[in-house]
Amino acid sequence: MSEKTANMPARKGLLNKAWWQRFGGSVKYAFHVMFHPFDGFWDLTHEHRGTLAAANFFVILLLLSRLMSLQLTNIMFMKVYWPRVNIFQQCASLLLPLGIYCGCNWGLTTLFDGKGTLKDVYIATAYALVPYILGQLIIIPLSNILTMEEGSLYTVIETAMLVWSALLLVCGMVQVHDFGLGKTLLFLFLTVVGMAIVIFLLLLFLTLVGDGIGYIISVYKEINFRLN
Questions:
Q1: Where are the alpha helices (DSSP H) in the chain?
Q2: Are 176 and 124 in contact (CB under 8 A)?
């Protein structure tokens, strides 16, 4: 056995270790982005401090925090009948708007010299969600401690974390596309409009498909009835 062949398992192990180290570093870097958004998002995209794996990790945490909030939040703050909750529908209600947002934002900004790629938009958006995710992990146990009179604290924390994520998203898009603040806000507004149009067309398409399937089924039943 040659020396090169003998060293292959070790090298593979080192590569795996390096990947995990980079993944851990990119996850920790989200805390820097939270408090230093302009520098953080610049390094995130231009210096490749962020990774797709870390972005996927944050999206998974977002899904888990949503399911945890449905299951564990005190009934005073969120009334949910868990047996009727569709987990796939809950996940789709988060993943679908996220995917449509990234696609619309990238498509629109590309037409007007936006510098960011679809991957950059997705990574920046995922990192911007971190304050909201952390906020959910705080208010879920807090909801089981607070009384009704103290419930305003629950709303304040949730709103503050949501606003924080929104501000990070604006900063992220500024750095990703190399736009000014005004142009970034304009394209965020256009992105929301584009999302509404895409969702409308998607619902229209699904309605037409459903009507078509229903028509085919009714024709089949009619033919089957006449033949029998």
A1: 3-6, 8-35, 37-46, 52-72, 87-111, 118-128, 130-143, 151-177, 181-227
A2: yes
**Can you tell me which residue has the tokens 């920046």?**
124
Q: Give the tens place of pLDDT for each residue, 26-80.
A: 999 999 999 999 999 999 888 888 899 999 999 999 999 998 888 888 888 887 7
Segment 122-143 shows an average pLDDT of 93
Residue partners of 104: CB distance under 8 A and separation at least 6: 191, 194, 195, 198
> How many folded domains does the chain comprise?
1
Nearest alpha-carbon partner for 71 in 58, 61, 81: 81
* Residue 75 counted as domain residue: yes
Q: Is residue 16 part of a domain?
A: no
**pTM of the complete model:** 0.85
Specify if 96 maps to a domain.
Answer: yes
Domain range for 155 is 52-227
Query: 138 lies in a domain?
Result: yes
- Virtual CA dihedral for 185, 137, 60, 75, nearest 10 degrees? -100
